[in-house]
Amino acid sequence: MKKQYSIALILFLALSWGAWAQRPPVDREKLEAARIAFITTRIDLKPEQAEKFWPIFNEYSDSRENTMRQISQLGKDLDTIGEEEAKARIQKRLQLQGELLQEEQTFVTAASKVLSSKQILMLNNVARDFNRHLYQRSREERR
């Protein structure tokens, strides 16, 4: 019985690896170019706005991604921590969430010198729409 289980597990892993290996690698440059084009079109960025906006947005995006990664790390290895460590992690998460809010306020202040308030509001939906667009395209390509 154990031998059959081992063979089934090895077969499953081999098939999974084969399927995974067939997935095309993500071209980060193409993905970034698509994201820029999508956002630029959706919020109707003018060339002079884009020149000033993208450095501000990229800095904000990098900072936000870093903070989100830190928050994600706090949720790891929860089975091995004690009550005091859990309390410390909760406090750290709250601190990082406060930093996210501060980062967004700083971004909005800087972006408002380049974009209209409406364009800034549209950014939240555009990022979500872009992710939804990518998801739908990947589902269509798999069919």
Q: Proportion of β residues?
A: under 5%
Distinct helical segment count: 5
3D shape: flat
State the major sheet: none
N-to-C series of helices and strands: HHHHH
Count of all domains: 1
Low-confidence spans: pLDDT under 50, at least 5 residues? 8-14
Helix proportion range: over 70%
Radius of gyration: 21 Å
Instruction: Give the strand tally.
Output: 0
Q: In whole angstroms, how far apart are the ends? A: 37 Å
Description:
This protein is mainly α. It contains 5 helices and no strands. The chain has one domain. It is flat, with a radius of gyration of 21 Å.
Task: Summarize the topology.
Elements: H1 2-22, H2 28-42, H3 47-74, H4 83-111, H5 117-142
Helix pairs in contact: 2-5, 3-4
Brief rundown of the structure:
The chain has helices spanning 2-22, 28-42, 47-74, 83-111, 117-142.
Descriptive terms for the model:
single chain, 143 residues, mainly alpha, 0% strand, flat, LTXXQ motif family protein, signal
